[in-house]
Amino acid sequence: MMTSTMKASHEVHKQLDWKAGLWAGVIAGLVFMMLEMAMVWLFLGGSPWGPPRMIAAMVLGRNVLPPPATFDIGIMMAAMGVHFLLSIIYGLFVGWLVHKLESLGVALLIGAVFGLAIYLINFYLIAPVLFPWFAMARHWVSIFNHILFGIVTAGAYIGLRHKRRVTGPYPR
Question: Could you tell me the pTM of the whole model?
């Protein structure tokens, strides 16, 4: 015999929560970008504006690459457009991967593996062919932040999905 809480839980896990996936991608994208910029500056001695310039170069071309790695609003807007589009797509994909899970720990582990997979695919398969300047970002800071991106995405999705479980669709 299913209680209304069990029904609500079952219904939440039955289908992907698109809104939770979108917001999970935005949240994880924000965490990633802030940490990437800070860690490149603090631990590697690089400019915090280097990572956004590398991302912006995907659409604006190589001429925006450092030096100088200084702030430029147009470059930053292009970088954020690309970065958050990809973050949302990845957020939806991670949501799809973990939406049926009850265990937060398993979801976070899947997120970590997904983040590592994004790093490996982007930096070793895609970048050498399309964006060779990303080779200079093959370091522990990028690996760490990609893994953390996956963890934050999965955790945010589960958290946002659970918020929906508490408020609906079945009245208490």
Answer: 0.88
